[in-house]
Amino acid sequence: MPSKLNPTRYAHCEGHTGLCFSEDGKHIITCGNEGDVRVWADLEDDDPVDKCIGEKALAVFQKGTQLFVGSDSNTVQALTFPELELNGIITRFPAPVTHIDVSVDGKILASASSDMKINVTEIDGLKTETLRDHRAPVLSVAIDPKLEYLASSSCDGTVKVWKLSDYSVSHTWNCVPKSNSFTWSTVLCRISWQPRTGRFLAIPDKNEVILYERDTWNKFISFADPNTGTQFLSVTCFSKSGDYLAASTTQGHIYVWNTNGGNIIEKIQTDVKQHVCALAWNPDSNVSQLAFCDVQGNFGTIDDVNTEKSSNIQVEDNMDKGNIPLTDPIFGDSDDEDNENAISIEKIKNESGFGASLGLNDVDKASLSGDGDGRSSRLSIKSIAPALPPIELQPPFQPSSSPVHLQHRYMVWNDLGIVRQVNTEDETAIDVEFHDIGTHYPFRINNSTNNTIAALTAECLVLACDKQEDAPSKLTCILLNAWDGSKEWVAQLSDDEEILAAASGKSWVAVATDKRTLRVFTVAGTQREVISLPGPIVCLCGKDDKLVAVFHSGVGLNGDQCLSYFILRIGNSTKAIFSPTLTQAFPLSPKSTLCWLGFSDEDSLCSVDSAGSLRLLTPSMLWRPVCHLDERNKGKFDHYFVIGVSECNQNIRCVLCKGSFYPPTTPKPALTEVPWQIPICEPTIEKGELEEEFWRSQLAVARIEALSRFDDSLSDVKDNIDKAIKKCVLKLFALACQSGLEMRAVELCELMPTSEIPQLAFKYAAKVGKTQLAERISQVLKRKTEDESDEPVAVVQSYSSSNQDYTSIIKNKVSHKSVSNEIDTEEMLEDDTNQGQENLILSMKQKTSSTQNAVLSNKFKKENPFKKAVNGENNTSKGLQSLSKRPVFNKNISRQVLPEPVKQKSNENKPTKTNPFMEWFSSQKSNLEEEFPDLDTSELTKIAIKRFKEEKQKPSNNQGGLKRFLSVSSMSEESQNTENESQDIIESSQLPLDTKKRKLDTIKNKESDKEKNPFSKLKAFSFNK
Length: 1025
Description:
Residues 868-917, 951-1025 are annotated as: Disordered. The protein is α+β, with helices and mostly antiparallel strands and 1025 residues long. Helix 5 (715-738) packs parallel to helix 7 (756-768).
């Protein structure tokens, strides 16, 4: 009995129309562009049940007692069936829903949307997983009958197969014509799984339907009509038994193939010859019926699709058409496949990759066929070879741009300005806007050449277009501030070459083509260089004299991209193009692609991948992860569109995109600053927070320190970051000390490149009374001091010869003064900063006391050391005879590694004063050590002071004075006096000779006032306070 095409009837208004059968096959359900859902008993039903669910209803699917409808209200609504009462909302999207599919068991619903996402929802618990790998509106979804895979097609030109176990992409094909939106898509690419087993996936590919094998995703067979002309196949649908495959075209044709034999049994032209946008088989096995709808809102059916007719078929090239046995089905369901106890040798071979013709050469195949004329036998019908699944290479893109298929998009958005493109049926234009109106006024140009690539600098706007059938690819450079009044120039490429990426910098323009060629022009249009690229280009990026090219260097494994990059420096002369580095591998997160590439405000190369990981290239040519942007989002479906990176402020300038990957063009979105956050282990505890802040600051200071040599404005920024680093290290040091982890504390000192931080750490250890820790730090400090200076400084030599090291200072401190176990790290840092952290001796030379008091304050103030004393000032020093001796330093001075003092001009020709005690102690040191072998350094120094005093002064006075001094050395008031005396000695020893003479009388008067304490001079030699 021949099939019957019933006359179509009006069902909905013009526009996309959805259709499905009820699960029992007794009703036909349609939805249309006016927002109504209608339930028809048959084609002649004049009073269908209808329900309005919104302005537009685009997708419908019935399962069990529920009817699921997707609309432009961005939701999938559940209605009762057949009453059509609202029963809740299954899932939501930021954009209209385009297609719906429900699993065989009715537990999982897959829905597609125009916002490039797919939601997989458990109907009972409404738990939703979102798939986001598409870069354009999604056209269709199809759930595998075995619930292992999900297939989807998109306007971005791809068909993807997802694993439902981990929602990763298993395979991708490029077979869909690209478009800007779901409404204006050329085809709908409705894909279909073979029922029950899901052995094959049917995908419409232009004018044919291709069946791909499950798991291997190899092409098995293709169906086509050689007389299709220019029309494309758009919708496919398997019958419930899987024996028939129907497909519709964009011009109203409907084909039906017998999957068992592979021949066409129906070829039907609809009445109105419009794009058939929906096609469905009646699930009732007793009825062979097809229902369809077109974009005019017409609804029709085809009855009795049963009779098999012979027709021409097109199969895979490796199949012999004459040898396909119609009596031996290739596709049909068999009992063996459903019987888990059955053994199929063919199935085992196919699954293991050992097909019948695997590894056979032509001679072997001929021998197996049994024919001498080279004809193939049935063993060569299907060839399965084990191979890795093909990896889709990332296509080229422009940084800070949105996809080309969008009607309103950003061609580029950088720190200089914004370039927008409008590509609608009514208007094609490019708008250019600058953040600073002083750079250039905004303007608009007509995009008659369909430019899709743009780069913007202060000198020019670079535009490039793809090659067309009747026009080659062109490069257009619009000059913004040309001194000769030039406005633009155009470079036309050859007919077989196309521009894929563009970049611009200071006085140069560069484009990369599909011929793997990098072409460099001057900003005025002179062709300067032609460079071969090692692989297909991914993107270009430029700033000032630097050009970066990222390209494919191989095929990645397990879904990864294998990218490499090189950096070129482009100077003004013809020989100034060179690469400072060799080609290096480009880092990406697993199974991710490159999304953004650019330079920071401080000229460091940065990148962002699709996983949201921001990386920065350090001066040592190492990529460091700076921040994971997706983890900083509050919303699960939100993303950041990166504009720029600042190392001084340690943040990222970007646009927060709610529910999408790209920002809208209108209204203009606001910029957001996202602070850096280094991916440190345990970031929530105090130690992790301090480590993150330290390494974040350490990462920024390296580049800023180099730039501050040429830009004085960055000096303050560098100082602030340096101070933050010191605070973090000292807090980590204090935390390690409080936790009893002294080895970790010493390691922190060893990690520091200079001796500055170990000096502060030594001070902390001295105050909290950790003698062993301070001794270790003193050793680290000496090593770092020796590394910083090729020649040992004089003061350090004196202390080394006298064995007066830091350990002795601490032991004296502990024995004569109790200390607190806790200290405020920030106060210690500020106090040490006031005293001069880098060079304490030089710092004290540059500081004098306030002028109102006779005694110096222990807070040093910066004043001119050569300034003459005015009336009313009393700048006397204590200890007249100490003017001719090398000074002995107070407690704060002794804790620093003291470099050689800077000589004043007035004393350049004068001999250096030496300290008699230090000279005497150096000569007597060995004798004292032999006499007192059991004493440590501090006790040995005490005895040396006593011996020196006995030799230089009267025994009675010396003995009593020294005892009195040692007995009160731990008192705070006496410590202050000693500190002031040491300071007076230092300053007076550095003053010019005439200044010393003017002060002589004042100093003598002061000594006469202190005759009651004749041993005040000896306090300068004490290392205790």
